[in-house]
Write a structure and sequence with these properties.
221 residues, alpha+beta, six-stranded mixed β-sheet, four-stranded antiparallel β-sheet, 44% strand, globular
Length: 221
């Protein structure tokens, strides 16, 4: 009788543990808060097609940053004063302004780390108007890892407002200097297609150039 009671107690504990796992229902659930300083971002500007653009660079390797940006001209007139979308590590936010910038101010900075167990690299790419993201990890991805990364990348896309629809997964040790040149979509192992309107992620395995649908996930946000 004692053994039966112990077994029942263990079963109840296991059910309780599995039921207590938090579901990720918002984009920010894929992140954890981190520490940071003003030195994690850097502002510059440039002239393109006779139009001034102001850039805020996230110069960290692992922090995702949100902030409020104010840009003024030499007479202290406001050129830009608003919140920015999340900026991912090593990337930037760009805003068009009506005159040559003089000073900028960053306030209300929040810092995050991606809260998943997989260490991978990414690279934005495109051919003409076909924009996509390369995802890579030395040793490749299991289907469960593809799913975990795909959900995280979906959350990043929502928060950064960089809504790439196709993601290609590779078994490559990432070379930062090589950039886009190291990727060829014919060598990808998986293609993940995202439909933001319908909140779906479709995972396709690539076999000799042919796509085999493995799974479609519906996201809650």
């Amino acid at each position: 009788m004692k053994k039966i009671l112990i077994i029942l107690l263990l079963a109840i504990m296991l059910v309780g543990c599995s039921g207590s796992k938090e579901k990720k229902t918002t984009a920010l659930d894929y992140f954890k808060t981190a520490e940071g300083t003003q030195e994690d971002v850097n502002g510059t500007y440039g002239l393109y097609n006779d139009k001034y653009f102001f850039y805020i660079d996230n110069i960290t390797d692992d922090k995702y940053i949100t902030l409020h940006l104010k840009v003024t001209d030499i007479d202290d007139n406001n050129l830009f004063d608003d919140n920015l979308n999340m900026i991912r590590p090593g990337f930037y936010a760009a805003r068009a302004v009506d005159d040559e910038p003089s000073l900028y101010y960053t306030t209300d900075l929040d810092y995050y780390n991606l809260d998943i167990s997989i260490d991978y690299d990414y690279n934005y790419d495109g051919v003409g108007t076909d924009l996509f993201t390369n995802i890579t990890k030395n040793g490749g991805f299991t289907i469960l890892e593809v799913e975990e990364v795909a959900k995280a990348e979906y959350a990043i896309a929502i928060l950064s407002n960089i809504l790439d629809t196709n993601y290609y997964y590779y078994d490559i040790a990432y070379d930062k200097e090589a950039g886009n040149a190291q990727f060829d979509r014919e060598d990808a192992n998986y293609k993940v297609a995202v439909d933001y309107d319908n909140k779906t992620i479709t995972i396709n395995k690539i076999d000799n150039g042919n796509l085999k649908e493995e799974k479609t996930i519906t996201m809650p946000f």
